[in-house]
Specification:
With 431 residues, the chain is an alpha+beta fold. It is built from 12 helices and 20 strands. Strands 1, 2, 13, 14, 15, 18 and 19 form a 7-stranded antiparallel β-sheet that branches. β7 and β8 form a beta hairpin. The longest helix has 21 residues. It starts with 7 loop residues before the first strand and ends in a 9-residue tail after the last helix.
Length: 431
């Protein structure tokens, strides 16, 4: 994840947490993570210390002022931002810990009705920064379901969660008696008590002991199926275009290419452009960016697909789902509009504004939309998303059984193209 002050395509807060939980850092924060060390609820809310009060004020004022000065919509979606300050600043200043502070910040940012506007605590920022390092993990990917409830989207093979019998589709109610929150870290070898609801609605209590595991690669290739290469992209991180160019240069002619962007939270705009350059000609327009001042800027394909000098001829499918966001929506939208690929899966999140990260005084992080986005076909994907050409649902039951109907549907959709090409006919690109 690029945290420098450059445009990035925001990963919605809930999905940032989801990715982070799957690959949780081992940074120590035992006072926050262990239930036996948590304060006993007495109905009396202790006042924050003087240092805490000052830091709360600095963090709140930084967030409030950055939104006022830099948000992509100068009208702030019609929100009375001064009134928001009057409402939320006293609550934020009174917060005794990060969890309470960032709840108030999130509640204020929610007024913008913008999935990209989000603030994450220092603990969550550390998890984001450690996502590609070896660290202690439980081995689950979480997606916020409602309030403090989190749905387990996937369980990592050979992880502590798998060993404990945790399954996709279950709902996480609490960790060590507390709702999962912005202030949680986990430690290697320190057991965690998970309160869960299984697929039948029954309550389950499971002990999971996080362990050190290597990171999931940001990009990976699966060539186990004849005539097909599946390129899994976890996020649009630095080096994606170069890696994709290397993979495509080694892919034999006539082999179908499937890009798996499911649960991909987005990433760098430059890498999205690099991916498109692998399949579309240079200088082809693919989007328009509209700044806070209302000035439109046309985005055109720039060469960036590794050492390749032009787009590849392979037929292409892209896999998406409701957790595909930002660059993982812009890319399939551009290829779909160009008639260059078939999109398979579930409708995407509709979270595509161009945003930027900025640090907060306590080590947390603010992500804020800085520009609007419209496709080359004039479609504003925000709150709308990408509708697949072939809609296929990948259910928790499928995951538990090891089935992937989305991938199988993509392979089947591309198979007739291969057969047509072998017969010597001219195929429609990507279909």
């Amino acid at each position: 994840m690029d945290v420098q002050p450059r445009p990035v395509l925001f990963r919605r807060l809930a999905v940032v947490f989801a990715l982070a939980v799957c690959l949780t850092t081992g940074a120590a924060a035992p006072a926050q993570a262990r239930a036996d060390e948590a304060p006993v609820a007495t109905g009396v809310i202790s006042a924050p210390s003087r240092d805490r009060l000052r830091m709360n004020a600095r963090v709140f004022d930084t967030v409030w002022d950055t939104v006022r000065r830099s948000y992509y919509d100068p009208d702030l979606q019609g929100v009375d931002w001064r009134q928001a300050r009057q409402t939320f600043r006293p609550r934020a200043l009174a917060a005794p810990d990060d969890r309470a502070l960032y709840r108030e910040l999130s509640a204020m940012l929610d007024l913008l009705d913008d999935d990209h506007a989000g603030a994450v605590s220092p603990a969550a920022a550390r998890r984001q920064d450690a996502v590609r390092t070896r660290r202690a993990v439980m081995g689950v990917t979480l997606v916020r379901q409602d309030g403090d409830l989190w749905r387990i989207e996937s369980v990592r093979p050979a992880s502590p969660a798998e060993a404990a019998g945790v399954e996709p589709g279950w709902v996480l109610q609490a960790v060590d008696g507390q709702s999962w929150g912005v202030d949680f870290d986990v430690e290697d070898g320190q057991p965690l008590r998970l309160d869960l609801t299984d697929a039948t609605g029954a309550s389950r209590q499971v002990s999971v002991t996080p362990q050190m595991m290597d990171p999931i690669p940001a990009f990976s290739a699966d060539t186990s199926r004849p005539g097909v290469v599946v390129l899994r992209i976890e996020a649009f991180e630095r080096g994606l275009g170069r890696w994709l160019g290397e993979q495509l240069s080694q892919t034999p002619a006539g082999t179908d290419v499937i890009l798996d962007l499911r649960s991909n939270p987005g990433g760098l705009l430059l890498e999205a452009d690099a991916v498109l350059s692998c399949f579309l000609p240079a200088r082809q327009e693919w989007a328009t960016r509209i700044s806070r001042a209302g000035r439109p800027v046309t985005l055109s394909i720039m060469p960036g697909c590794g050492a390749l000098t032009g787009p590849v001829p392979h037929d292409v499918a892209l896999l998406v789902n409701g957790s595909s966001r930002s660059a993982a929506e812009l890319t399939p939208a551009a290829l779909q509009e160009a008639g260059r690929a078939v999109v398979v899966g579930e409708p995407t999140a509709g979270s595509v504004l161009i945003s930027q990260d900025s640090p907060l005084p306590d080590g947390g992080r603010l992500t804020l939309s800085r520009a609007d986005y419209v496709t080359s076909g004039g479609v504003r994907l925000e709150k709308r998303g990408v509708t697949p050409d072939i809609v296929v649902v990948h259910s928790p039951e499928d995951r538990r059984a090891g089935r992937d109907p989305v991938l199988e549907a993509a392979i089947a959709a591309l198979a007739p193209v291969q057969q047509t090409q072998r017969a010597g006919a001219v195929a429609v690109p990507g279909l």
